[in-house]
Specification:
The structure is a single chain. With about 150 residues, this protein is α+β, with helices and mostly antiparallel strands. The chain has two domains: about 5-45, Winged helix-like DNA-binding domain superfamily/Winged helix DNA-binding domain (Arc Repressor Mutant, subunit A); about 60-135, Alpha-Beta Plaits (2-Layer Sandwich). About 35% of the residues lie in helices and about 20% in strands. A hairpin with a 6-residue loop joins strand 2 (about 90-95) and strand 3.
Length: about 150
């Protein structure tokens, strides 16, 4: 049976989305339940792969100040092989399949505009990619992990 989240789970997720290091006791205080309840719910949320606890890096803070969103058009029958090659590129932080003329969309974070150029040249060498549309990110105004 699939795990169904309820309002308490949503409250836990909402609080953790803002501060992943908050103490269970503080979450319990905010949601008016026991710390034991929070621990059990947290464990269930992790085990059921509803939440994953990771450290989120601010790319600018580690010198990755340039970014781009790149749309990729592939030849028929090559989407999966192109995706596998894209997964090996360290600068790519996000890959998704999309509808429309561009079947894949990726996001890269690199140190400079020159690194964006180099990434595009690497993409151009991947068999199965027939068109690339690059959108340079000038400024990020929102980047959140709050879904609930």
């Amino acid at each position: 049976m699939e795990y169904q989240i309820d309002d308490l789970d949503r409250g836990i997720i909402r609080i953790l989305s803002k501060d992943g290091r908050i103490a269970f006791s503080e979450i319990a205080n905010q949601l008016n339940v026991t710390e034991k309840t929070i621990r059990l719910r947290y464990k269930n949320l992790v085990q059921n792969e509803i939440i994953e606890v990771v450290g989120v890096v601010n790319p600018i803070a580690i010198g990755l100040k340039a970014g781009a969103i790149i749309q990729i058009r592939t030849t028929q029958g090559s989407i999966e092989s192109v995706m596998e090659k894209l997964k090996t590129m360290k600068e790519i932080r996000f890959i998704t399949m999309t509808s429309g003329p561009y079947t894949l969309l990726i996001q890269i974070n690199v140190q400079s505009q020159e690194d964006i150029r180099q990434s595009i040249l690497k993409l151009d060498q991947i068999e199965g990619i027939v068109d690339i549309n690059t959108i340079i990110q000038l400024e990020n105004y929102k980047n959140t992990f709050e879904y609930i």
